[in-house]
Amino acid sequence: MRFRVGSNRLPLVGAPSSFWRLTIELVCDLLCRVLSRPLINSLALTVLSAALSIVVFPQAGLWPLAWVALIPLFFALSGTSLKGAFLLGWLYGTIKSMGVAHWLFYAVYASGDLGVWVSLVFFVSVTVFFLAFYFAFFAIGATVILSARVSPWFQMIALPALWVAVEFARSTLFTGFPWGLLGHSQVGWRQLIQFADICGAVGISFLIVMVNTAIFLVIRHWVGKPVGLKFLLPVAVLLIAALVYGRVRVQQFTPSVQNRPGPGQTVAVVQSAIPQQEKWKSRHARRQLETYLQLTEQSIAQGAALVVWPETALSTYIQNRVPPKVQAALDQTDTALLIGAPAHERRGSKTVSLNSAYLVRGDAVVGRYDKQHLLPFSEYFPLDIDFLKMRYFGPTAYAEGTGSPLLHTPVGKVGTLICFEIIFSDLARRAVQGGAELLVNISNEAWFGNSGEHGQLLSIAAFKAVEFRRPVIRSGNTGISGFIDTTGHVVSSIPPFQQGVRLHQPGIRRDTTVYCRVGEAFSWLCVALSLIALVICAVDCFNRHSSTQYSGA
């Protein structure tokens, strides 16, 4: 059974001059002829759409292309069968996932030292046989929606809702992987992303897909009986409203003389740039500690009240005894030190290791946070099955931390997120609802080499600053370390693989955002809308197919 887009046209509204009308008609007619639906064209359009969807993210950073990136895919899906839609969506998802998450291969091959074939099998398993299928399911749904005899206005809501529903599923199912959401590509458009404090990054994704859909419909319906630009009017209104809201919020959250932090609220982040190959080698431990202490002494000399070290900065357990050299660095000062290091505790009949962040003041540990959302195939193996015979990247497997304790630092209550935990909004929300005034993200991204991972993770961290209106402080072994204000602006940073220190007074906030209070309400609304839309469109397509069969008989 094949579903085809209906041929209904809408009357022209607000026609331009005859010259421009003729020009637009000719362009749209040419596009529709070129973008017809033979297999080779469908494949080419899908590949083009995937390529555009890759370059909108760092490192390429061609984010404006996100607003047209899905149009070729929509043309490829128009009139195809459900089987064809699944394959085209799977192809799109494969190319996009490989392009965006290319750093996965480097992490396993170069940093994990597992060989080409094991690394390739792992990379293909994650991108081709996992991530790509989310896009395949979107393509099936999009084909059903585009094939039904429904109003184009209906399609303009249904397609963005479906996209958000799929992004939400990818963010939550099977431990979740909310990486490279379409909305994340717009981190460079500071005014636009401000309404993420209402509906999260998926709200920006919704608007982007709506614009793509509107442009697609204008081109699609112009030939024959032109419809004018009426499809662009509602998205233009929404876009302008988002920008006005963003302008107001940027002005509202820009520090003024009245709310700037005072003395004793300076935070320092240190970036050591220690190669991953040396990080867990005992013969390098002393030199690594001396590097951190030297950078810490620089920070204290410049007035830092809190100094943040990266994830697993120390490879030794310090929960019972702070290293003497660290004590000496903090002697006769009120400066607190947040250190990434492993911990251990007894659970039942066995002792487990934890990936932790310690708050040290003087000679004592005064607080600890244990990582809760562990990274599959790196910090643990699902079901304890090492199906690729991979060794753990770290010295051991970790257990999940329990609870979300805040660290009470001299500059405010800190909610700590270790490494990839910054991509999960529920963890940040839990910390902010518990009273966190700042969010600190410590990480070690040396695994990923000089790849796009660093910029991608920084962009996600910037969205967390906007979503919860909390300054985000990042300290990474190899970067990108720095400070992000509550509008998502990176106010100071250290480039990847450079050693250094940055200091900043981030200020604290205690109010909560709509997104923090209502959670993923917008995502669930899109799930409901997409399900209703799919049922309506599927029934219409089924009735037309049954009617065709009956008349043919």
What does this structure look like?
With 553 residues, the chain is α/β, with parallel strands linked by helices. 47% of the residues lie in helices and 13% in strands. It is built from 17 helices and 12 strands. The chain has helices at 18-34, 39-55, 71-77, 82-100, 103-111, 116-147, 152-172, 196-199, 201-222, 232-253, 276-279, 285-301, 324-330, 425-433, 453-468, 514-518, 521-552; strands at 267-271, 306-308, 336-347, 350-361, 364-370, 407-409, 412-418, 438-443, 472-476, 481-484, 490-494, 500-504. The strands form 2 sheets. Strands 5-4-3-2-1-12 form a 6-stranded mixed beta sheet, with helices on one face. Strands 6-7-8-9-10-11 form a 6-stranded mixed beta sheet, with helices on one face. Helix 13 links the parallel strand 2 and strand 3. Helix 2 (39-55) runs antiparallel to helix 3, helix 3 (71-77) crosses helix 9 and helix 6 (116-147) packs antiparallel against helix 7 (152-172).
Strand order of the largest sheet: 5-4-3-2-1-12
Question: How would you state the average pLDDT, rounded?
Answer: 84
Percentage of residues in strands: 5-15%
Helix segment count?
17
Radius of gyration: 26 Å
| β-strand number | 12
- Anisotropy-based shape: elongated
Poorly predicted parts: 1-16
Distance between the termini: 16 Å
**Estimated helix fraction:** 40-55%
The computed structural class is: alpha/beta
Query: What characterizes the major β-sheet?
Result: 6 strands, mixed
What is the string of SSEs from the N terminus onward?
HHHHHHHHHHEHHEHEEEEEHEHEEEEHH
